[in-house]
């Protein structure tokens, strides 16, 4: 007679099952973690660690690039009470305003004109984008030659041919920021034109046909159809342009070194001078943190506009 085995079997512990599932999930995700690990290390070492270290160093008295002692907000007080900083902040605002006046409407107008063309669209797309491929320093040096105040300056040579007097150009403090913004617009507007063109391709052509039937001219079609249809990308690119111009540095560094009489000095250029000309790292980082706060505000606006553009509200 067989007696059934009534010996109780050991129960599987819930904790062991959960641990095994975690291990199995980790092994499944391991290839993905291996792919993103270099990026995590790169951003940690070259982005986040310097950012945090710089923020901490901005509250320190420094000797060269070494921290000496904690002084709280003294670097910020010294920087913001400096008349040069006050002028620099106003200059940065003027950079942004001039970039909106000169550089904001230009890409929209060029994109609309190219979009209306039937022939040679590819040629004009390449033509407007080509300056964007020129390195920034090279473009700035090119415009230095154009705006040279001497008789050998390209623009002065042209004016002399027309019987006009030579001008000081970059040496005139009333013109300096405007001329630097023209340089920046020439080099950077091509990318915006391509983005606007891509957005214009998504406008429903039936809207233009209906407007034409109603007798609307080209200006009314642009004002009532084109601009409202691409308004989301216009808003986003406006914020991105403000963020970019707020960080302007190498154009005034290359073309004027912040002159004449600090007339073209920007916040980032002042931070650069503090760090590499005066070797005052604490004050340099204080200016950088102040700039970062403004850029953070603009970035928040950008993300809100981007969220609205993607319909995530």
Polypeptide structure, described:
With 313 residues, this protein is mainly alpha-helical. The chain has 2 domains: 44 residues, no CATH class; 236 residues, Orthogonal Bundle (MetI-like fold). The model has no long low-confidence stretch (mean pLDDT 84). A two-stranded antiparallel sheet has the order 1-2. The longest helix is centred in the first third of the chain and has 44 residues. The chain is built from 13 helices and 2 strands, in the order H-E-E-H-H-H-H-H-H-H-H-H-H-H-H. Helix 2 packs across helix 13, helix 3 packs antiparallel against helix 10 and helix 10 runs antiparallel to helix 13. Helix content is 70%, strand content 3%. Belongs to the binding-protein-dependent transport system permease family.
**Would you count the extended β strands for me?**
2
CATH second-level architecture of the largest domain: Orthogonal Bundle
Structural class: mainly alpha
Provide mean pLDDT, rounded: 84
**Alpha carbon gyration radius:** 29 Å
Describe the secondary structure blueprint for this structure.
Blueprint: H1 14-57, E1 60-63, E2 66-70, H2 74-80, H3 83-116, H4 121-129, H5 136-146, H6 154-161, H7 176-200, H8 205-213, H9 218-229, H10 231-246, H11 250-255, H12 267-276, H13 281-309
Antiparallel strand pairs: 1-2
Membrane topology: Multi-pass membrane protein
Pfam families: BPD_transp_1 (PF00528)
Domain ABC transmembrane type-1: 89-302
């Amino acid at each position: 007679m067989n007696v059934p085995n009534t010996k109780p079997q050991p129960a599987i512990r819930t904790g062991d099952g959960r641990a095994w599932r975690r291990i199995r999930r980790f092994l499944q995700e391991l290839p993905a973690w291996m792919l993103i690990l270099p990026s995590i290390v790169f951003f940690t070492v070259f982005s986040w660690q310097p950012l945090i270290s710089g923020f901490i160093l901005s509250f320190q008295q420094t000797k060269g690039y070494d921290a000496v002692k904690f002084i709280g907000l003294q670097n910020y007080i010294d920087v913001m009470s400096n008349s040069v900083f006050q002028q620099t902040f106003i200059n940065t605002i003027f950079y942004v305003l001039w970039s909106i006046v000169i550089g904001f409407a230009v890409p929209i107008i060029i994109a609309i004109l190219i979009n209306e063309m039937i022939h040679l669209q590819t040629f004009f797309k390449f033509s407007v984008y080509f300056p964007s491929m020129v390195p920034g320093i090279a473009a700035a040096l090119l415009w230095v030659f154009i705006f040279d105040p001497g008789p050998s300056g390209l623009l002065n040579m042209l004016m002399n041919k027309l019987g006009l007097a030579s001008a000081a150009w970059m040496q005139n403090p009333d013109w300096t920021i405007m001329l630097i913004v023209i340089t920046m617009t020439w080099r950077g507007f091509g990318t915006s034109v391509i983005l606007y063109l891509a957005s214009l391709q998504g406008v429903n052509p039936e809207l233009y046909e209906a407007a034409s039937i109603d007798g609307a001219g080209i200006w009314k079609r642009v004002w009532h159809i084109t601009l409202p249809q691409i308004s989301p990308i216009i808003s986003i690119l406006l914020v991105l342009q403000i963020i970019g111009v707020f960080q302007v540095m190498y154009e005034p560094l290359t073309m004027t070194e912040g002159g004449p009489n600090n007339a073209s000095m920007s916040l980032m250029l002042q931070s650069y001078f503090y760090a590499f000309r005066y070797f005052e790292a604490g004050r340099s980082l204080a200016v950088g943190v102040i700039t970062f706060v403004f850029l953070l505000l603009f970035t928040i606006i950008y993300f809100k506009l981007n969220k609205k553009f993607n319909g995530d509200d």
